[in-house]
Amino acid sequence: LGIATVTYTAGSSTGTDTITAMTSNGLSSTTTVAVSTAAQIVQSVSLAADKTALTADGAATSNSVISATVLDTNNQPVVGQVVTFALDSAPTVPGALTAINATTDANGNAQVLYTAGTDIGTATISATISGISRSIDISLNAGVPAAPFTVNAAPAAVNYAGQSAISATVVD
Q1: Residue 13 clears pLDDT 90, i.e. is over it
Q2: Is the entire prediction scored with pTM above 0.85?
Q3: Dihedral (CA of 69, 77, 75, 10) sign
Q4: CA angle 57, 59, 62 (to 5 degrees)
Q5: Which of 12-21, 60-69, 147-156 has the highest mean pLDDT?
Q6: Beta-strand (E) ranges in 96-148?
Q7: Distance (Å, rounded) from C-alpha 1 to C-alpha 55?
């Protein structure tokens, strides 16, 4: 048993290339390789968020656009491929993603929207395609209290150069 290995490099034309191996005694065998501009091999994935810190208030406005950019071995955008997103923030999951799958566009970008939950901490969001994963952290912080607060002056009226004690009370 003998094995010979060579490397085939596709040319610039699309179609099917036939490769023939021949022994010294005239035996031969063939195989084919399809050359297509549509065949893209994922080389890299980068992940970005338009906001990396959010208020942990559960409001629909506390969100961040998560963008995965997928490039092939020629540094060209990978188009029409599915990127899988996941939210991992054990032991609790603060917030939600609008989708777990998104398809890359003409620029190789796939996007989902992350909305913060009410737990303070860190939400880790990952994007995976063709076995390549990247992750990004979103910091979830305490925000401005939702409950009202009051401000009082005592006394409420003073003479010129008089003093008044001002107090603010925040209700939690």
Answers
A1: no
A2: no
A3: positive
A4: 85
A5: 60-69
A6: 96-97, 101-103, 109-115, 121-129, 132-141
A7: 66
